[in-house]
């Protein structure tokens, strides 16, 4: 038997050991870790809504009425009218018939994929899909086929090769979490339709910042990024949602989402639909960061969004750049395997509405040629 200490030592040797950071406060774009404060470029609070006064107030109010937890699983007595109101609002927003909340986006992905496909079925998935989608595919027992990243022709090849499978599910993210680029959603949807596959799109990073993809059989999302709360959801046809209520183990065997999360997300959903300014700001700031970094000779991969990677390649180089930035007062941890493939390590900057132009310029200035050499 391999001792656990040995396994940890091996991770350490490969510079792949991870450690939790103790954050003792956040304030706008600032994060306080240990005895230092940094400008945080690692938060998914894209629109700054997690601390919006109306979001905080709504959460406090339901806390008084409902208490801290749902106190039961959804199928027992953990479905409150707050769950149902948010599900209706999410279905309407995503332009789907119906929606179902899960405690996390991870569980939403597990629930929908394992309920839909199993042995004898095939999943056709982008190479860079998130771990929750990959894990769901493995757990389902269906055969997983991976196509090259954002490559509709590659997806078509797989669809042609898998025609004999009982049921096929085409899965992509709309905005990719580590590259910050978009899937060719319309082409993929047309292919799924032409090849009689079910189409599923994960909108986790796009919600609130970009328009969602329309016409997909299944949209999944999270409340934990631009919505500033916690929880996940599936939006789809009434029939599919009914099937999930009956089959999705990650929905059935877990406690319903807390009223605090529901109220916060419900309020945030209203806020970003009313006010496009934070979204416009995030798009403009991330464009500025991307273009400045590119002008300085950095590779920002295919980024087109508020997620701006800075390609490093090796683990060591990514760690070196992260340390250099930390020294300069910026928090943007190195992204290493297994989050990305070996040799594709990077920094990943998440731009949010809490940032300002000056911070973007300072970040880029810390990465000027000569500064990093
Ligand atoms: N899908 C994607 C593409 C993600 O990036 C994430 C979270 N990083 C999830 C799903 C899971 O969402 P949650 O954090 O709500 O579990």
Any key phrases for this structure?
373 residues; alpha/beta; seven-stranded mixed beta sheet
Structure characterization notes:
- By secondary structure, this protein is of the alpha/beta class.
- 40% of the residues lie in helices and 18% in strands.
- The protein has 13 helices and 14 strands.
- The strands form three sheets. It has a seven-stranded mixed sheet with strand order 4-10-9-8-7-5-6, with helices on both faces.
- Helix 6 (152-161) packs parallel to helix 7 (185-194) and helix 11 (277-295) packs parallel to helix 13.
- The termini are far apart.
- The structure holds 4'-deoxy-4'-aminopyridoxal-5'-phosphate.
- The site of 4'-deoxy-4'-aminopyridoxal-5'-phosphate has 14 residues, from helix 4.
Shape: globular
Supply Rg.
Answer: 21 Å
What fraction of residues sit in β-strands?
A: 15-25%
Which hetero ligands occur in this complex? 4'-deoxy-4'-aminopyridoxal-5'-phosphate
Tell me the distance between the termini. 44 Å
Q: Quaternary arrangement of the chains shown?
A: single chain
| Largest beta-sheet details | 7 strands, mixed
Helix and strand composition category: alpha/beta
The stretches of 5 or more residues where confidence is low (pLDDT under 50) are none
The overall average pLDDT, rounded, is 96
**Strand order within the widest beta sheet:** 4-10-9-8-7-5-6
**How do the SSEs run, as a string of H and E?**
HEEEHHEHEHEHEHEEEHHHHEHEEEH
- SS summary, helix count: 13
Number of DSSP E strands: 14
Share in helix: 40-55%
